[in-house]
From TrEMBL:
Belongs to the methyltransferase superfamily. LaeA methyltransferase family. It comes from the Eukaryota. The lineage of its organism: Eukaryota, Fungi, Dikarya, Ascomycota, Pezizomycotina. This is S-adenosyl-L-methionine-dependent methyltransferase. Residues 1-55 are annotated as: Disordered.
Amino acid sequence: MATAEGPPAEGLLRKKTSFGALRADEDEDGAGRETHSSADRDADPEISSLSNMSQFSTGLSVDSDADSAMGDLAAPMSTASITSSVYEFVEEYGRTFHRYKQGRYWMPNDPTEQDRLDLQHAVFLMLLKGKLGLAPIENPQSVLDIGTGTGIWAIEFAAQYPSADVLGTDLSPIQPDYVPGNCHFEVDDAEDDWIYSRPFDYIHLRLMFHTFKSHQKLIASAFEHLAPGGWMEWQDYYCQLQCVDDTMKGTALEKWVRMYIDGGQRLGRDMLAPRRYKAWMQEAGFVNVTEERLAIPGNAWPRGKDQKKLGLWQMTNFLDGLHAVSMTIFTKGLGLSPEEVELFLVDVRKDIKNLGIHFYFLTYFVYGQKPPLPHDGASEPPTAAT
């Protein structure tokens, strides 16, 4: 991401507590990264375990004395909300969900979920060492953040690029009132026809893999509404959790993953879509398509203070979102009763907290460029800025 054009003003812009300040630029160990350029046209085989990923390095090392090394990181973080909602939403399973296009998005939108989303933002900031994305953008003037959630990514991007007009869209109007003057929000469904009056220089999506019925349709819409030379970037989990060894075999967590994927697919969603983003973007006409894969530890099992911190934040993020997403998929997709889901999740939570289970989230970053106009030159991608 290019150098910020102005100082961020997170604390002055939001009425709610933001995890955006939890940046970690001093990562000791670094995260495993693998890059695939668009010259590699052959699609990777579906990844189901680490044994199929001989060329992928997680950058994570098992800490043989993880418990004693935890210190102040021993307990999950608190994400108690200090915000209140002024909107009327649909209530289900004790949580609130969006009313516009009801049922399209599976996660709730209440204050508890809003704090989880801000924590999740902090996880990605730490993973990317403070960057908001990996696409080599240059002086973007018009930016679209699809599925903006609390709007924290859009707000921080707008603060870093004061000359850019940043639009965040979502099915839930849960964004704060106090935002930079160049940032605004709209309630919108990205799978509807796009009617924007001007093209975008950068379109960003994060953790939207289970949201769309047709990722290809959305990619086509993005391609059409990008300016020549503009970039689209996906940031998404591969929800088939990985493990550096066999410690996840036979666990409730492993069973949960299978059920999560199966239930989502029965509801008409491609739960493993991120592995296809690169090919879909190339088919749509994008050039300079690059795929990078990074590893987020599922709890504090790895060696190294920074990796433990990242794992702790992700464990809290996972635990805080587990009930809501499980209830939706397991009851509506698999036909389980709420009581059966609650009982099952008891053991799943134990596994998530178990430092003896060395699991991680394989995370895809896929970005591509709409071909520049012929007079622009630039058949090769610009060098990624820091």
